[in-house]
């Protein structure tokens, strides 16, 4: 049985599973080694965690020290995390896609003592910056090929393989095991468990301090809200554990409930892995669901004829059945029979590609298009949506399993308050809790604010930014605009112009735009990419430099065509786009762009008197051109 109490911490969750839910020799982790899936028991996981604890205790690591991870989802992540957490050290997981500059900043800002590295590319990245990182003492590669990489002769940090770290696992002895247990039992829920870095409006990463209490309470109430998750589940994990969503909603949930975690090999192999692992639950981002939706629609209709008619009939039948059930009505014998036929002819074939056992998926990180959610609902696959931020551990609201309102992110979780605050007057429009839920309730929109157990302790070493985010009444201001609709929270806009791409990555336009504006060829740049798979931009060239480079007459800028189509000009600007992209993380890089002939203007309502771009105006005005950038073939990085 799951057991939460006032003393629960992240490392105590897994110990409770072994004591009360599963036998130590039962499977906890599943990963693919060479060509075969390998099962790893709870016992092996905890032995390896103890080895990690012992290794760092011998080297003076103590409670409160920050320990880095830059590694893909894997058993090694779990061993390291459990090992450091149970001696009170703090997990600082770094996105593998961040630039060298950003990685260096995070290592120094947090004071990371040791860092676990997952592959050759990341290892080389850390070696380049290691001597600029004053507190970094240990670099720990978790892959055999690290020996082939040339290491700087004057490297200050010590390199120790993770294999060596784990080598003491079978031979720790009772004394050391007891010492580790004593430290684990001495941990307080109020102790910081993790720093997760999230970019601020200035682009400088901020470390959100999340406590054991933040995480444990978030897991506890989410399991209350979705009580169908039990110890028999198999989760397939592919979203990065450096992201708070996957950390809490897969890893911590499985640690608490005793579910199995299977690690996908890669995003490219995800479909194959789903068929092999046959998961019952998955956390995902909207883009994955959109791809499945698009592929299914294309496959079902492209052949035309009878096959397409059957497919469309099945979807219509599924929709009628779903709506009847949602309205609390009995579908009746005729519709139920039609649904059974649709299931056999169409739905079962789609479900087989997910492994055939999927109970539901939880979508987070970005908004799920309503039609995509309804499509899966018509198939009989539940998509539960959730909402939260790094700073809120992360879940603030999540869809209930038995009550779904498409286009919303669900009911407020137990134990917190969500307020809707007027953006202009700052007056509170409404406050909702889990207990106040009314499926007929709705209210006007405003900024979403929250207080309660999910709110972070603050930003690490940034008291001013913390005070700006969390007001004197302990409300955390999310910067998102929303309302309550049918009792559920609905996200309608963003207070600021933050872009959230289709994979849930947050991109603040201004710092990215400023990188590209270093180019003398570019006068203005407008970044696009919200809910999109990649970033694009509308670029306004520096008129003087463009004229000089191509000997252009003034009449060139008076042509009626709004966008420049000359290939040589596009290639000229593209040189600098590619050049400055190297300063950015992969998900921040522009993959396509259009060159606008003349600047945005106040006369056209495109910019404010202070020359700030009016995002909605520009996106609506140039919607056709923007859409072109996402239908054209672009080069991948």
UniProtKB/TrEMBL annotation:
Keywords associated with the record: ATP-binding, Ligase, Nucleotide-binding
**Keyword Transmembrane helix carried by entry:** no
> Which part of the chain is the AMP-dependent synthetase/ligase domain?
23-460
Q: Which PROSITE patterns match?
A: AMP_BINDING
Q: Which InterPro entries match?
A: AMP-binding_CS, AMP-dep_synth/lig_dom, ANL_N_sf
User: Keyword Cell membrane: yes or no?
Assistant: no
- Provide one Gene Ontology cellular component: membrane
Q: Which GO terms describe its molecular function?
A: ATP binding; long-chain fatty acid-CoA ligase activity
Report the CDD domains cross-referenced here: VL_LC_FACS_like
**Stated name of the protein:** Long-chain fatty acid--CoA ligase
The organism's taxonomy opens as: Bacteria, Pseudomonadati, Bacteroidota, Sphingobacteriia, Sphingobacteriales
């Amino acid at each position: 049985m799951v057991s939460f109490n006032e003393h629960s911490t992240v490392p105590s969750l897994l110990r409770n599973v072994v004591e009360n839910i599963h036998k130590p020799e039962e499977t906890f982790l599943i990963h693919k080694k060479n060509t075969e899936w390998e099962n790893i028991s709870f016992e092996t996981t905890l032995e390896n965690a103890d080895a990690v604890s012992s290794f760092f205790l011998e080297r003076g690591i103590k409670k409160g020290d920050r320990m880095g991870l830059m590694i893909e989802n894997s058993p090694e992540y779990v061993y390291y995390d459990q090992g450091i957490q149970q001696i009170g050290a703090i997990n600082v997981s770094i996105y593998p896609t961040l630039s060298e500059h950003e990685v260096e900043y995070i290592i120094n800002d947090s004071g990371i003592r040791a860092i676990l590295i997952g592959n050759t590319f990341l290892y080389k990245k850390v070696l380049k910056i290691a001597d600029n990182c004053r507190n970094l003492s240990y670099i720990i590669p978790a892959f055999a090929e690290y020996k082939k990489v040339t290491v700087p002769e004057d490297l200050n940090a010590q390199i120790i393989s993770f294999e060596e770290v784990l080598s003491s696992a079978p031979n720790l002895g009772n004394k050391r095991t007891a010492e580790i247990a004593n430290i684990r039992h001495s941990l307080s829920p109020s102790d910081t468990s993790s720093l997760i870095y999230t970019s601020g409006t200035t682009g400088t990463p901020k470390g959100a301090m999340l406590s054991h209490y933040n995480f444990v309470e978030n897991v506890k109430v989410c399991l209350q809200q979705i009580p169908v998750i039990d110890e028999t589940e198999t989760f397939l994990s592919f979203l990065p554990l450096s992201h708070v969503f996957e950390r809490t909603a897969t890893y911590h949930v499985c640690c608490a409930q005793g579910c199995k975690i299977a690690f996908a090999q890669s995003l490219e192999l995800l479909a194959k892995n789903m068929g092999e692992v046959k998961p019952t639950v998955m956390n995902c981002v909207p883009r994955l669901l959109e791809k499945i939706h698009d592929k299914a629609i294309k496959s079902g209709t492209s052949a035309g004829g009878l096959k397409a008619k059957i497919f469309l009939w099945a979807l219509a039948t599924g929709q009628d059945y779903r709506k009847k059930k949602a309205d609390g009505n009995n579908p009746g014998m005729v519709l139920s029979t039609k649904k059974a036929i649709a299931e056999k002819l169409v739905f079962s074939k789609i479900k087989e590609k997910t492994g055939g056992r999927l109970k539901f998926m939880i979508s987070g990180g970005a908004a799920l298009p309503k039609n995509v959610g309804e499509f899966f609902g018509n198939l009989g696959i539940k998509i539960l949506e959730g909402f939260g931020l790094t700073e809120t551990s992360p879940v603030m609201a999540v869809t209930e399993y038995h009550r779904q309102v498409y286009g919303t992110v669900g009911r407020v979780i137990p134990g917190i308050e969500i307020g809707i605050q007027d953006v202009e007057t700052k007056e509170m429009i409404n406050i909702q809790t889990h207990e106040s839920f009314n499926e007929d309730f709705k209210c006007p929109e405003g900024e979403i604010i929250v207080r309660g157990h999910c709110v972070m302790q603050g930003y690490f070493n940034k008291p001013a930014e913390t005070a700006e985010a969390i007001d004197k009444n302990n409300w955390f201001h999310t910067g998102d605009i929303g309302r309550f609709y049918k009792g559920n929270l609905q996200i309608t806009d963003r207070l600021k112009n933050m872009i959230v791409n289709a994979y849930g990555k947050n991109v603040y336009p201004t710092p990215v735009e400023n990188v590209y504006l270093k180019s003398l060829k570019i006068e203005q740049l407008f970044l696009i990419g919200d809910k999109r798979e990649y970033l694009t931009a509308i670029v306004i060239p520096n008129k003087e430099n463009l004229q000089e480079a191509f000997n252009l007459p003034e009449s060139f800028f008076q042509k009626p065509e709004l966008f420049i189509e000359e290939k040589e000009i596009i290639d000229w600007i593209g040189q600098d786009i590619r050049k400055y992209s190297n300063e950015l993380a992969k998900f921040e890089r522009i993959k396509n762009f259009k060159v606008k002939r003349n600047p945005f203007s106040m006369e056209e309502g495109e910019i404010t008197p202070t020359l700030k771009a009016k995002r909605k105006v520009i996106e609506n005005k140039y919607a056709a051109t923007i859409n072109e950038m996402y239908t054209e073939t672009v080069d991948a990085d």
